[in-house]
Amino acid sequence: MEQPIFSTRAHVFQIDPNTKKNWVPTSKHAVTVSYFYDSTRNVYRIISLDGSKAIINSTITPNMTFTKTSQKFGQWADSRANTVYGLGFSSEHHLSKFAEKFQEFKEAARLAKEKSQEKMELTSTPSQESAGGDLQSPLTPESINGTDDERTPDVTQNSESRAEPTQNALPFSHSSAISKHWEAELATLKGNNAKLTAALLESTANVKQWKQQLAAYQEEAERLHKRVTELECVSSQANAVHTHKTELNQTIQELEETLKVKEEEIERLKQEIDNARELQEQRDSLTQKLQEVEIRNKDLEGQLSDLEQRLEKSQNEQEAFRNNLKTLLEILDGKIFELTELRDNLAKLLECS
To answer: DSSP string covering 144-203, please?
Structure first.
């Protein structure tokens, strides 16, 4: 009987068979994804249903690998289904838990396969010895999964091929050896017939098991349909929430644009403040220089006033000097006039004498 041993919820995807690159969603919403263990066949499988449709039916093999491609997404390749499955989880914790279970069941499948191979090797050894090297290899799991109608012609053909030598004329001395040989062949065929009968019984049991599993899937599908109906009842509220969410997103976008404009304005104001600080520093420097110039100007004004006083004094002295010189010139002119008269008188005296 196949029973679920671990379940979770995730969005299911499959790789696009055409491009082999893009993911194609196989479920419109998150669905239940479960690990199943088939105790009859000793295999582990991953199964997921979307309504009555099986969107995942993957048997875990030892060569499979589950890869985490992001914090909430993982994938694995199934060569038997010729596809790649992808699961999107609601959180990183659910992804990690699923990956741990995948690795655990993959290791269990590997151990089960090794034990099955060892059992088959032990089973095949006696049958090969009894057949004397003339019979084919023992039954494989693939041959066991067949039907009784498919195997019956093989047994008949083997019987006919083994019966052909009896139609030939053989010496009487070999009759005893031939009889023993065909008795061994008959015993081997009886053994093979018993194995085929057991395989048929196992196939019948598997059919019953699949019917039970199908009934369980149908019950699960009905439950999921009811859940879908409930979700459709609240779809109107979901639409309102979606509309409100759209409005909020638009408001947030507008606020982000306004914030961006404010940030640009703040940046511009910061630049203006820096420029104002530079201008203030230049103003302070110019003010200090102006104060120094005013102090120096005051000193120069004092020096200028002193020079003006000295100039005025010098002008007064020069005026007095000029007056004195003028007086001297007047005196000198009188003296020169007297000397001229004296000369003229002397000249007249010389002429008279």
So the answer is: HTS-HHHHHHHHHHHHHHHHGGGGS---GGGHHHHHHHHHHHHHHHHHHHHHHHHHHHHH
Give the integer Cα–Cα distance in Å for 207 and 202: 9
Phi-psi region of 153 (alpha: psi -120 to 50; beta: other; left: phi over 0): alpha
Q: Answer for the pair 221, 49: CB distance below 8 angstroms, yes or no.
A: yes
Task: Give every CB contact of residue 247 below 8 A, 6+ residues apart in sequence.
Answer: none
19, with CB counted inside 10 A (0-12, 13-18, 19+), is exposed
Q: Could you tell me the CA-to-CA distances from 128 to 3, 131, 132, 134, 191 in Å, in that order?
A: 37, 5, 6, 8, 12
103 contacts: CB under 8 Å, gap ≥ 6 = 66
User: What pLDDT, on the 0 to 100 scale, is given for residue 74?
Assistant: 95
- The tally of CA atoms less than 13 A away on the side-chain side of residue 320 is 6
Angstrom distance (rounded) from CA 313 to CA 301: 18
Query: Tokens 């009859």 map to which residue?
Result: 40
Predicted pLDDT at 237: 65
Alpha helices in the chain, H assignment, sequence order: 92-130, 141-144, 148-163, 175-233, 235-352
pTM: 0.37
pLDDT for 87 equals 95
Q: What is the pLDDT of residue 236?
A: 57
Can you read off the two tokens belonging to residue 73?
């997404």
Q: What are phi and psi of 342, to 5 degrees?
A: -65, -40
Total Cβ atoms within 10 A of residue 50: 18
pLDDT at position 321, please? Answer: 92
Listed in sequence order, the residues at least 6 apart from 196 whose beta carbon sits closer than 8 Å to its beta carbon are 148, 151, 155
Residues 189, 183: Cα–Cα separation, whole Å: 10
Output DSSP code: residue 86. E
**Biggest alpha carbon distance in the chain?**
224
Strand partners, 45: 36, 59
Q: Splitting the chain (353 residues) into consecutive groups of 10 residues, what average pLDDT does each group show?
A: 83 90 89 89 89 88 92 92 92 94 91 78 52 37 35 34 36 56 76 75 73 76 75 67 80 86 89 89 90 91 91 91 92 92 90 84
Tell me the residue type at 6: F
